Structures
1.
Amino acid sequence: MTDSAKFIDRTGYKYPEKLDLWEPILITKNEMDEEIARLAELPRPENGRRQSLIVHPRWAELGVGPGLNPGVRVTLEVLKPGEQTAPIRHNSTQVNFCIEGTGHSIVNGKKIEFNEFDVYNFPSMGTYWH
């Protein structure tokens, strides 16, 4: 594998006349709870991030990466009490939703406290850890 950029030639590409919309899917509470329990049983990885991507069954058709719909990545992440993730940043805005427990994130040096069911976001290219 090389570290160079990849190009996809789209010269003359004709967009489909009809949109191929993905059918809705349901991720149940039971499925979420099972995955949370599975992740919680794993030893802490070096970067502190026990995580699973939640993807649509058709994600691979686009060839742009795993997502719940085109352009949207959903990640389930589990931290145990007292754990911390390694700092990271992304080139997209991130929305966080606390499913269970409490904690805080440090985003560009600012502390954001959260509790169960809180939702918060932070901007692209912001360095953060939980």
2.
Amino acid sequence: VETESLHTFYARPWQIGFVIYHGYKLIEEHSYFIRWSDIQVSKGAAEKTKFDKKKIDEIGKDPKEIMEILGKYIYDESYLLTGSNILNYDIMIFYNTMKKLGLKHDYSFLSRCYDCNALFKSYKLGLKPNYDNFLAWQFSLNNWKQK
């Protein structure tokens, strides 16, 4: 997810990409640019994320169309959702954008989220997962900082 800012409540995504795997086999690849009429990306953010307003104006799609596609996968219970820092950022962007667009927006999918950031921290620290409260355990690791 690339957004106009890092603010998880107000930021709107201008690019969304995801892949579908079955085991190690790549099944589908998705990459979408989202066209908002009034999106504002700072010069520094645009450089880091390769934001290109002309490209988005040319090939960007309607936000509702793209979020409905993404929602189809996120709310499908047959999928496990994985990503780096998805619990602290991507999921919030997804939820808030769905809400703003008047689309289904609940957190019923959270129990199927596996955040690679949390899992890698636990591995590096030698911590065993708390499977009884796995979601809260991931959130706590994502927010834990070691000096």
